[in-house]
Amino acid sequence: MNIYLDNASTTFPKPKVVSDSIYNFLVNIGGNPGRSNHNNGMESNRLLLDARETIASFFNFNNISNVIFTSNITSSLNILINGCLKKGDHVITSSIEHNSVLRPLFKLENNNLIELSIISSNEFGFINVDDIKSAIRKNTKFIILSHASNVLGSIQPIEEIGRLCKDNGIFFILDSAQSAGVLDIDFTKLNLSALAFTGHKSLFGPQGIGGFIITDELNEICNPYILGGTGSMSYSLDQPDFLPDKFESGTLNMPGIVGLNEGIKFINKEGLNSIYEKNSYLRNLLISNLQDIENIQLYEDFSNSNYTSCVSFNSTKMDTAELSYELDYKYGIKNRSGLHCAPLTHKSIGSFPDGTVRLSISYFNTIEDINYTIDSINKILK
């Protein structure tokens, strides 16, 4: 058997239309957008524009020029954090963040450039809006949060936090790594200033493509993090100050952009709600069966249904890494163990330093996958 349950890391398999579109681009098009006027280059331009339109529509944003492509969501968050924050800014984040948020913020704080407040979640990975409200200062400039935890799948009250930011004139940056493609993300309704996204997870794109959407207001104070060729204003030694060129130096990953575009179109065709409902059904099936296994510790608030497809657990009978290894080596169940690049989350839920075994579900998983996984865990622990 080969059961893939590491979709929070990267989704697998991808829809066939994704790989087909990448193959077609590499074999039949291959041009460099913005650099050439021949047919191949112009076709690449058309595909690039179509991808920006797809992404803007998917997240309910009205200006495709403000859709910026990067290599991944870590790059997007670093561009936003290092390019937008200024000396003396106060930033609020939380303990459920991935290191792609925490590490650049900690570096800025350690260099005495920003002030940083980290809101602790409860033991189930949920943060309280009142705690954020209490942390706001006169110089609070940004709130930077993950939409959902990559360890637990806990979904944060983003709409309430967005209203809080709007009322207090605070820029709001959202890390959508675990939510885009699973949850409805309305940029305007959530009062976002920037939305960072990655292609290779629930948007069903390939690895190596990501990006962000930025408002004009935030763009005004944000400096480009990487400078270079953009295919525009080549006569000038200054970086263009208009979007998207301001943030898109160097050759874009067009095969990745084409694949991501088709991944989002696949989601639109299947229906975002249908994907969420199937994932939730399989997650609930997994949770309910794990509860029946002795010596299993689930990091779960059973009274709360606000979760994506991640499930974290441990066993009191076996080391975390050993259990993960047995699932993969003996039963072919692809999973992840450890701290999942989110150490503060594990401190909040009491699983530090060993971390957890994490199983994460995708739209392509089945009831048979879940039943086989439960049976395998039972066999290992017995």
From TrEMBL:
Domain of life (superkingdom): Bacteria
Keywords: Aminotransferase, Pyridoxal phosphate, Transferase
SUPFAM superfamilies, per the entry: PLP-dependent transferases (SSF53383)
Keyword presence, Transferase: yes
GO molecular function: cysteine desulfurase activity; transaminase activity
Keyword check for Protein transport: no
Entry EC no(s): 2.8.1.7
Listed InterPro entries: Aminotrans_V_dom, Cys_dSase-rel_unknwn_funct, Cysteine_dSase, PyrdxlP-dep_Trfase, PyrdxlP-dep_Trfase_major, PyrdxlP-dep_Trfase_small
Transmembrane stretches, start-end: none
Entry cofactors: pyridoxal 5'-phosphate
PANTHER family (alphabetical): CYSTEINE DESULFURASE, ISOPENICILLIN N EPIMERASE
Family from the record: Belongs to the class-V pyridoxal-phosphate-dependent aminotransferase family. Csd subfamily.
Stored NCBIfam families: am_tr_V_EF2568
Protein name per its UniProtKB record: cysteine desulfurase
Species the sequence originates in: Clostridium sartagoforme
